[in-house]
Amino acid sequence: MPFEPDLIVLDAPAADHPFTQRVLEALPGVPVRRDHTPASAVETLREEAVDVFGAAKRQLVLTTFRGSFLKKCPGLSPGMVCCNYYVVNLIKNCVYDCSYCFLQDFLENNPLLTAFVNIDDLLVELEEEFREHPDRSFRVGTGEVTDSLALDDLLPYTDYLVPFFNRQNNAVLELKTKSDCVDNLLKQSDPTNVIVSWSLNPDEIVEQEEVGTPSLPKRLDAARRCAEHGFKVGIHLDPVILFDGWEKGYGRLIEQVFDTLPAHQLEWISLGSFRYRPNLKRMMQERHPHTRLLTQEHVAGSDGKFRYLRPLRNHAYDTLRTTIKRRAPEVDVYLCMETKEVWEGVTGHLPRADETLDRFFDF
Ligand code: SF4
């Protein structure tokens, strides 16, 4: 079922924007409040809703963003290895409801599903930035605080982003998703400079923990269609979750990936372990009381996030990397949001932050 919000909150500066008109035309039956601000909409939810965060995902704010869209990836934390990545946030929050989603903590005070309609301003900013730094390679992701494609039928940002990135000499776009919502994307004729990456987990984790997301076969089929269309495809096994039987579960998942996608069509596979800040644990316990993710021991890292004990992480990464390499030695595997010690322990070397991943994008 296509997503339909319960309410649209229309911020005054966004009202006459063509993108706003496009979205409103696609949602003719949804009530629109022009007298509400995002803050007053949240206030009302706090008075009326039991699950404020869950209800806020169903209220769509159309607004404009003032300031600089392009940001260095905030994943760069003390002790962690940087992947030299930039993010732009056109949407905040997500229509899915994964139990482990960090947005429950990160957006707790500002949880409404928010779309910035002034994509024209973003493209001007990016054009200037890319032109000012012709010697730099920009990898730009839109999936930091949302799923890049889950709403692309309704909020068709790829109509603007893909043709723009097609023309760039020093920039690629990464669309990171758990969705199967690729019909709009597949209308684009040119896949140049665009990588579509899927976040995958074994079926049992998808069913138990990734609430509202498309099944694993649907995601893989969407990835296959994008690869056949010529888009580069990446895979994130992230968060890796250590449940009873995880070795078999992830082994099966890796088989399913390579049964669907030929290795030569895969740009990389990234691995990242389940991690959380203390406040997320409280939100998970409140909003997802049946989650099985909090039963094991976790330790705080230098970035303040809790993870599985390092030997368990090392063992899991090593197992998955070996399984992938056995099936497809040519596929590059890298670790996301990990310490130097874990990188060295698993891969035998430490990446250089400014160069390591550039080759994945054929600069
Ligand atoms: S798909 Fe990503 S952004 Fe959406 S709820 Fe799940 S973890 Fe959060």
TrEMBL record:
InterPro entries in the cross-refs: rSAM_sf (IPR058240), SPL (IPR049539)
GO cellular component: a single term: endospore-forming forespore
Signal peptide start and end residues: none
Coiled coil segments of this chain: none
Molecular function GO labels: 4 iron, 4 sulfur cluster binding; DNA photolyase activity; S-adenosyl-L-methionine binding
Pfam families on file: SPL
Transmembrane segments: none
PANTHER family named among the record's database cross-references: SPORE PHOTOPRODUCT LYASE (PTHR37822:SF2), SPORE PHOTOPRODUCT LYASE-RELATED (PTHR37822)
Protein name per its UniProtKB record: Putative Radical SAM domain protein
